[in-house]
Amino acid sequence: MAKKKKAPRSKKLESVVLDGSTALAWCFTDENSAYADAVARSLPRIGALVPAVWHLEVANALVVGERRGRCDRDDTLKWTKFLLSLPISIEEHNGSRIFHEVVDLARAQKLSTYHAAHLELALRRGLPLATLDEPLKHAAVAVGVEHFDPSR
Prior knowledge:
It is globular, with a radius of gyration of 17 Å. It has one domain (16-143): 5'-nuclease (Rossmann fold, 3-Layer(aba) Sandwich). The chain contains 7 helices and 4 strands. The N and C termini lie far apart (35 Å). It has a 4-stranded parallel beta sheet with strand order 3-2-1-4, with helices on both faces. By secondary structure, it is of the alpha/beta class.
């Protein structure tokens, strides 16, 4: 009698690289997104990894949002408290990696170095990328980085 082969186990996801566009969709009501909400629901289970620039990128968007009347100081304080409560780890970049791999990726994929930092991190760590940014999504596909699917 032949033994039944076991179905291969799917590898448990270690983490996801989180782009600022997804986090900002949680903060600004005019950027609501079912995808971003699903990512938020998945974070307690898997956590997120971000490049060191992420906090500055998100904080800048919130301050600019205040200036443009999209939110006020109290909103910013509420959202930063929420963001700090999430299981988000920071991956520090070293100067050599920024000036070589990140810059090369930015050039090749026509991205800002901020977006290239997210893409380089996902590529190097073999992690999916959670982003709402279309050019970043296209660049991820081009280099073989998976777009995070929170339903898995």
